[in-house]
Amino acid sequence: VTTPLAIALVGAGLIGRVHLERLDASPDCACAAICDPTDAAKVLATERNLPWFPSPREMLAAMRLDGAIIATPNALHVPNAIDCLEAGVPVLVEKPLAESVAAAQRLVDAQARTGIPVLAGHHRRHNPIVKAARRLVRDGRLGRLVAVNALFLIRKPDDYFDVAWRKQAGGGPVLINLIHDIDNLRFICGEIDSVQAMTSNATRGFAVEDTAALIFRFANGALGTATVSDVTPAPWSWELSSGENKAYPQRDGHCYLIAGSEGSLSLPKLDLWSYEGKPGWWEPLRQETLSVEPVEPLAEQVRHFCAVIRGTEQPITNAADAARTLAVVEAVAEAARSGSMVAVAGQPRAQAA
Ligand SMILES: NC(=O)c1ccc[n+]([C@@H]2O[C@H](COP(=O)([O-])OP(=O)(O)OC[C@H]3O[C@@H](n4cnc5c(N)ncnc54)[C@H](O)[C@@H]3O)[C@@H](O)[C@H]2O)c1
Fold first, then answer.
1. Ligand 1 centre and the CA of 113: distance in Å?
2. pLDDT below 70 — which residues of the chain?
3. ω before 279 within 30° of 0 (cis)?
4. 104, 348 in Cβ contact below 8 A?
């Protein structure tokens, strides 16, 4: 019998409390401490009879831990994670890995220096739909990748904007939501090396964009587009179509179209299109739908984190890899600002997963 791993929760806010439920449900680990300076977090720790700490340093000095989940505001991810790594404690860091590529590089360096694992919280990678799509592309079932189209078309509720920062630059769909889609596309289709983008705030009229259109080039030569808007009653987003997060009512719809020279694939339904015989637009196109057993990604992420801590699995998204996703998102923001094509910079030095 293996002893459950002792995992600390650093940042017991909205997503932190969801992680807490997943820790509770896991046979591999248990929450061992709550670290968050708020009174609400102190109450939560008291209710659960768990030690409470106002800062990671105090916690790390006081107790032995097997791992920590960092679910604090973006700008604290890197300092909180580095404190843990320096104390020899593996971390699961929420996305985005950092508030900037420069900060992310500090975490990549700290990981390399300490040798302690970092798993980034790009939880969609744990979805079997995403894993199956990656396998199909990698196995060459689509042939050479030609073109990719991603959609994040959705309607945020009006009261979402009661929080001031969401109306300002940096609080919109490009930096907050698109990062999930960019990470999915990188994981499934490969590295993105340059981007162009246009944004618009014409519908809501806030300083932040409500709509964006992107063009990008993958390192393997495929071209991609993404259309993003948070002002439209549409079913074409991972959120509404994948069934991953039950808070969103589910509708049939697709959000990624992946086209190759020998076949094409739509997600999340995993419809695979190809020609049985001679290819050509007069010929009948064959449709197969792959089925996968649904898995709840945040629960699978906790299982995987425990396996990473025990050294039996390598992080599905390590620090360098998550820093590359962030670099693409930064390049999109820069491309929209400048109106020029932007090469994805800040290629972190440590090897990617
Ligand atoms: N994977 C996802 O889909 C997903 C979803 C939501 C949020 N997130 C990410 O999770 C992070 C947290 O988001 P949230 O919505 O839960 O925010 P939140 O504001 O609800 O929670 C953050 C918590 O961190 C605490 N905190 C602040 N300073 C701290 C410190 N020094 N030490 C310990 N705790 C501290 C705050 O008191 C708060 O309780 C963000 O990086 C966000 O991008 C990811």
1. 26
2. 1, 346-353
3. no
4. yes
Q: Which residues contact 255 (CB under 8 A, 6 or more apart)?
A: 150, 151, 152, 181, 236, 237, 238, 241, 242, 267, 268
Query: For residues 257 and 237, what is the distance between their CA atoms, to the nearest angstrom?
Result: 12
Pairwise CA distance, residues 184 & 130, whole Å:
7
Beta strand pairing status for 5-10 and 29-35? parallel
Distance CA 167, CA 138 (A): 40
Shortest-distance atom of ligand 1 to CA 17: 16
Query: How many other CB atoms are found less than 10 A from the CB of residue 232?
Result: 13
Do 116 and 87 contact (CB within 8 A), yes or no?
no
Q: What is the layout of strands, in order, in the sheet containing 285-289?
A: 285-289, 271-275, 264-267, 256-260, 145-153, 223-229, 211-218, 192-200, 342-343
Amino acid 345: pLDDT: 77
Cα 231 to ligand 1 centroid, rounded to whole Å: 25
Quick one: how many helices (H) and strands (E) in the chain? Answer: 11, 15
List residues near ligand 1 (CB under 6 A): 10-16, 35-38, 41, 55, 71-74, 76, 94-95, 121, 123
| Amino acid code (one letter) for 139 | D
What are the structure tokens assigned to 18, written together?
């969801």
**Which atom from ligand 1 is nearest to the alpha carbon of 38?**
37
Whether the full predicted model's pTM is greater than 0.90, yes or no, is yes
Q: What pLDDT was estimated at residue 352?
A: 42
Peptide bond into 284 cis (omega under 30): no
Q: Nearest CA to 216 among 315, 170, 148?
A: 148
Q: Tell me if residue 193 falls in helix, strand or coil.
A: strand
Q: Read off the pLDDT of residues 39-95 as tens digits, 9 standing for 90 and up.
A: 999 999 999 999 999 999 999 999 999 999 999 999 999 999 999 999 999 999 999
Q: Is the dihedral of CA 322, 87, 297, 19 positive or negative?
A: negative
For residues 350 and 319, is the Cβ–Cβ distance under 8 A?
Answer: yes
Nearest alpha-carbon partner for 188 in 303, 270, 98: 270
Q: Whose CA is nearest to atom 43 of ligand 1?
A: 95
